[in-house]
Specification:
Belongs to the ComF/GntX family. With 303 residues, the chain is an alpha/beta fold. The protein has 15 helices and six strands. Helix 5 packs across helix 12.
Length: 303
């Protein structure tokens, strides 16, 4: 029996060494039961995580606040009912586990988490696209509107599965943009996590990724600030990227938009806390455009 146990241990170790590196869960390191099939357009979350870690993801299934997408009562939107952006939708709650995942990507440079985070944003992207489509009266919106999270899971390939679906998503979103980071942060991290999340989103939306914003000054780290401090810190932080704004105007003209028809821009960021960052960004975009612009927000996490 002793030799049997030893042989089993050696066999298990040899499988671990010879098996594919992604057979282990990215988060806990444990072996997954098997590699799920890959989708036609890339990997899925199950390609990185075990069932246990997948079950720990705090998905936002039913936003309680229609403006900011918070899953519970939101006093911020009660205090400030008029916003520069139309609405925000987030994929998950920002709890301790999600904070750790983001830190490994944002501060430790583990790019595998970037792919996971981008994939996790898909249900929120589909929900937001469905809501905007329904409001605009698009056929795609009528098909998926009101399905909720369970329905969206059934059609999780909706923007990607059909080329017609991609075209519908492209009609919903005229452009995708992101929150810029300061030069110091870019040099420190080597990348802008919001830009990378926006790039993946733009591919799903079949819309161009445009740098519509530039950071005029560094606001400092926001994580330790309260709501009022965040609002003060974000004043005059962002300005328009003139080249990106011109490109947006060219796209609007090429699409044949009527003068009264708004351009829909999807602004992507990693975390929504008080909304001060996306509020400042949306205001800068709208102030720079000489035509109607509606800014919607997609974030990975909602605190």
């Amino acid at each position: 029996m002793k030799w049997t146990a030893i042989l089993r241990s050696l066999f298990s170790q040899s499988v671990d060494l010879l098996g594919p590196p992604d057979a282990h869960c990215l988060v806990c390191g444990g072996r997954r039961r098997g590699l799920p099939p890959r989708s036609a357009d890339g990997l899925r979350i199950g390609d990185w995580l075990c069932d246990g870690c997948l079950a720990c993801i705090p998905w936002i299934r039913r936003p309680a606040c229609p403006r900011c997408g918070r899953p519970v009562f939101c006093p911020d939107c009660i205090r400030q009912p008029v916003r520069a952006f139309e609405m925000n939708r987030s994929a998950v709650r920002y709890n301790d586990d999600m904070k750790a995942w983001l830190a490994l990507y944002k501060f430790r440079g583990d790019e595998r988490y970037g792919e996971v985070l981008a994939e996790m944003m898909l249900p929120a992207f589909e929900r937001l696209t469905a809501e905007v489509s329904a409001a605009a009266g698009d056929e795609a919106g009528r098909v998926v509107s009101g399905t909720g999270f369970a329905g969206l899971k059934k059609i999780s390939g909706w923007p990607d599965r059909m080329r017609g679906g991609r075209q519908a998503a492209g009609q919903v979103w005229h452009a995708v943009t992101y929150v810029p980071v300061s030069r110091e942060r870019a040099e420190e991290r080597g990348f802008n996590q919001s830009e990378r999340l926006a790039r993946a989103t733009a591919m799903r939306a079949n819309a161009p990724l445009l740098p519509l914003l530039r950071r005029i000054r560094d606001s400092g780290k926001q994580s330790q600030r309260g709501r009022s401090e965040r609002l003060r810190a974000m004043r005059a932080v962002f300005g328009p990227d003139d080249a990106g704004i011109r490109r947006l105007a060219e796209l609007r003209a090429s699409c044949g938009n009527r003068a009264s028809e708004p351009v829909r821009v999807l602004l992507v960021d990693d975390i929504y806390t008080t909304g001060s960052t996306v509020e400042a960004c949306a205001g800068a975009i709208r102030a720079a455009a000489s035509y109607p612009v509606q800014v919607y927000v997609l974030t990975w996490a909602r605190s």
